[in-house]
Structure formats: structure tokens, C-alpha cells
Amino acid sequence: MGCFKYSLAMRFNRKISPDTKIKQNFITKKRLREDEINFDDLRSYRLDRVKKELEKNNLEACILFDPVNVRYALDSVNMSVYNMHNLTRYCFVPVNGPTILYEYFNCEILSKHLNLIDEIRPAITWDYFSNGDQANIQLKKWINEIRELSKNYFKSKRIAIDVINGPAVSELNKAGIEVVDAKLIMEQARVIKSAEEIKCMKAALEVAEIGVAKMREELKPGMTEDELWSILHKTNIAYGGEWIECRILSSGERTNPWMQESSNKVMQNGEIVAFDTDMVGPYGYCADISRTYVVGHKFNDEQKKLYFMAMDQIDHNSRLIKPGMSFKEFVEKSWVLPEAYYGNRYSCMVHGIGLCDEWPQIKYPNDGGEQGGSFEKNMTITLESYIGEVGGKEGVKLEQQYLVGLNGLELMSHHPLEKI
User: Fold this and answer.
1) How many alpha carbons fall within 13 Å on the CB side of residue 48?
2) Would the pLDDT of 12 be above 60?
3) What's the whole-model pTM score?
4) How far apart are CA 124 and CA 288, in angstroms?
5) CA angle 109-111-112, nearest 5°?
6) Is residue 306 within 8 Å of residue 222, measured between CB atoms?
């Protein structure tokens, strides 16, 4: 069929667009990659990590509502963004016993193919949106369900839960069940990546870099920030990605201070444009890189100065990190941000990355740089830099994604920095 389409295009003198060629190449590579990814190994590894962390913390089970955690534990997906703010889907993971997915109304069929899920039951929801004045009745049903699970699978009456509302915690406590935070469990489980996870992450980065390259190519005076940002969204969906965590893109004086989201501001020639992808791509893995361009692609002297400083920070910090280095030692030896820029510093210098931003988040010395822990082989991280003088006109944001290898960092993000 592909050859037939190509011959027709040639016959009628129609050219295959560069975008079509890129997509065709990606689809071919995706098929080859999926032949290489052992999804059974991927899923077994992740669920095993969760159970081992539960055991390490003397816990017998957890209940997970966060869609990212459900994805990690069971690789089950359904309306992820919706379920981030509605308690309408969750799973039960015991150290010993059946994994149970509590699925959204009439959606049981969506996860039938996943062999690590032993049972799928309808979710019991008790939030006001779903039940109105019947919410308390539904909550009692949910409490009874958890009581039954406790009799068989967590007799200690202690359960780790990641996201839950106040009334549910109160009722669990009345039922003699202690709730502990599952955030520690899940962050520690997710921190070391398997070979299959790294393959998935590289696929997500490849999609992000296709989008980022198109953003740079199409950037021109007269575009709005929102128009430019939409290119990354479109690319992510077209290539099998899922969602974008934020929409941080700004231009000109909106780049200082940092963290402003895209707007209908019209971009002008010579202005800096900076953004952070925060993109959850194929297989649910995050591609988190930042780039800074100039409309017209000609940096002035001040813009060059900011850009070189950002590159210096990432280069210096990337050379420090090796397996076994403590976070505290890294902070002590990290690139020193000049005083004039310190007030506008980014929230961290390093953070973990996986299905989304993950532990650790390593901050500047004055912000809590004493955190315990150390870099380990097969962690995946990003290095961050934002350079914008307090009271200055513009700022530069750069971020690179890395794998912690045996002897240091291996760069995973390959979209080039600007040649200035």
C-alpha cells in the first residue's frame, strides 16, 4: 500500500512533504522499536519495584489514585488528566495477593489485555461531583471494601495511599485503618530505570525533538506565543504522545522573571523566546528539555551573554555527576550563580525524570540543598538553568535530559543548542 501511494504521488507530480517523510520515518522506527521493547519485562519490573518498596517500609499494600502511579504499577491508562482531579479510578497493590484495578464506569474492557492485573472491579466513587448528596453513602461502601481487603491482604491495618481526600482519611481512621503516604514508596520505586524504560524515554524524546525543531523552523515575527506552543502539542498527539504538564513559553520581557505561560502576545523580531517542553509522550514517558531562541535567530550581545552563562551552568554541573556522588556534595561543587541573577533563580538545579518529573529535586544551597541521597546508575535526570538578572529585560532557559551511566552522565536530548 505504501509503494502504491508513493507511485500515485509521483504520477501526478505531487511531492511528499518533509513533514510526511519525517512521520513515515518515525512510524517505521516506532515499529522496529516496539519489536525491541519487551513490554512484559517493562511491566513486571515496575510492579516488582513497587512491591519491594512496600516491603522495605514494612507495608503490606498500597492504594494508588494518581494516574501516573497507576500507569507505573500496572501500565493501565484511562482518561489520565481527568482522573488527576477526580477520585474515580484507582488500584490496589498488595505485596502478597491479587492486584485489583478499580476501573471507571463501564471501562473494564480497556485493561483486559494486561496480565499483571488479577481482577478488575467497578470503582466505588464518593466525591460530590459524582454523587451529590449520596456521597456519604458511597464513602461508606468504599470503606467497607477496604475493610474486606484488609482482612486478607494487609492485616496490620496500615495502608499506603498516594492521593485521597479528608473525609476518606477520617473514615478509614474510624475503621481502625492507618493511612501512610505512598508518595515516598512510588518515588523511590520509580527512580531506577530498566533498559526497557530507557527505550521508551528515548522514543518520547525523539517526538519532543521533532516538535521542537518544527517550532524553531516556523518561528517568525507576528506569531503569537500560543501559536508557537501549539506546534509542540500537535506534534506530540500526532506521534502517539499523551499530554503536556505545563505550557511554559514566553517571549521578550515576559521571559524575565521565568515561569510565565504562553499567551496571545505577538512576538517581535529580535526578541528572546524560551520554553520548557514538560511533554508526556509515547508510552507515557516524559521528555523534559528547555530551549531558547531569538525571533530572527540573531542574538544581540546581551542575549549571547545570558545564553553562554546558561550553557556554562549545565556543562559544569553535568561534568560533576557520577554514580555514588551525594546530592549534598553536588550542591557544594555546583556552578555558582552570580548574585545579580540569584533572586530570579530556577526552583532547582537537577530533578529526576520518568513518567513525569520525579525525585530527586536538588535545589540551590539556600533553598534546601542539604537533602540526603546520592546519584545512582540508571537514574534519569534533567539539568536546569535559568539566567535572568533581577530587574533585567530578558532571560534564557536551558534544560538537558541525561541518563546516569557507569562513569558519568550520558546525554539523552540531542536537539542542538544554538550556535551563536
Assistant:
1) 9
2) no
3) 0.92
4) 35
5) 65
6) no
